[in-house]
Specification:
Layout: E1 6-11, E2 16-21, H1 25-34, H2 38-44, H3 55-62, E3 76-81, E4 90-98, E5 103-110, H4 120-134, E6 140-146, H5 150-158, E7 162-172, E8 178-187
Parallel strand pairs: 5-6
Antiparallel strand pairs: 1-2, 2-3, 3-4, 4-5, 6-8, 7-8
Length: 196
C-alpha cells in the first residue's frame, strides 16, 4: 500500500477524535515494544515477543488469517492514534483480502495497557468496518478469536458479528497446547447493522 491511509473517528464518550493511519517503521517498533507483555499471548494466541528490528515479522504475525475464503494478499495494518503526533496505542488490520469474493478478515489489539477497556478497540473496529464496506466494497468480514477470549468475542458480537463455527483444538499456542477458536462473520447487508 503506497499511499497513506488516514481515517478519522469520533469518540463521543471522551469528547475527542482518534485516527487510524498507516504506520512508519518507527511506529511499528513502538507497537513491538508495547507487545512485550505475557498476558497478550493468552489473549491473542501467538508469541507477541519480537525484536525491535523485526517489523516485517510483526506485520506478518498480525496478518495471519484463518477463514477458508481468505487469500494471500497484502494486509492493511493501521495504527490506532489518539493524536497523530504521538505513537499508536494499538493496531487494526484487514488481512486475507479476497477481492474476487469481496471478503476479508479483521484483527485488532490495543497494546498500550493504559488504553485497554476504554472502548477504543470497538470504535477502531467500527471505523475499519465502515471503510471496508464503503470504500473497498467488501461484502463479508470474518473475525477469529480464542474461545477463552470473552472480551473480544463480546466486542465482535456487539458489532453484529455472528458465530459461524467453533473450531475445537484448532490453534496451536506458543507453549504447544491446542486451543479452541471461534469464527465469526459480519455481512454488509446484515439487517442488524447500519454500515451504509
Amino acid at each position: 500500500m503506497d499511499e497513506r491511509i488516514l481515517l478519522e473517528q469520533e469518540n463521543k464518550a471522551a469528547g475527542s477524535k482518534f485516527f487510524l493511519a498507516s504506520m512508519a517503521n518507527s511506529h511499528i517498533k513502538h507497537l513491538i515494544k508495547l507487545a512485550q507483555d505475557e498476558s497478550l499471548i493468552d489473549l491473542l494466541g501467538w508469541n507477541t515477543f519480537f525484536q525491535p528490528n523485526e517489523t516485517e515479522e510483526f506485520i506478518e504475525a498480525i496478518s495471519s488469517y484463518a477463514f477458508p475464503y481468505s487469500r494471500k494478499s497484502q494486509p492493511l495494518p493501521l495504527g490506532i492514534y489518539l493524536n497523530l503526533e504521538n505513537f499508536p496505542i494499538g493496531y487494526v488490520v484487514l488481512k486475507g483480502l479476497n477481492m474476487d469474493l469481496l471478503t476479508t478478515e479483521i484483527g485488532i489489539a490495543i497494546l498500550d495497557k493504559k488504553y485497554r477497556n476504554k472502548g477504543y478497540g470497538t470504535l477502531a473496529l467500527e471505523r475499519l468496518i465502515i471503510y471496508a464496506f464503503q470504500e473497498l466494497h467488501i461484502q463479508r468480514i470474518g473475525a477469529v478469536a480464542l474461545l477463552s477470549n470473552n472480551r473480544s468475542i463480546n466486542m465482535f458480537n456487539n458489532l453484529g458479528f455472528v458465530v459461524r463455527e467453533i473450531m475445537y483444538e484448532s490453534w496451536q499456542m506458543p507453549n504447544g497446547e491446542l486451543a479452541d477458536m471461534v469464527l465469526m462473520e459480519l455481512t454488509n447487508n446484515d439487517s442488524m447493522t447500519s454500515w451504509k
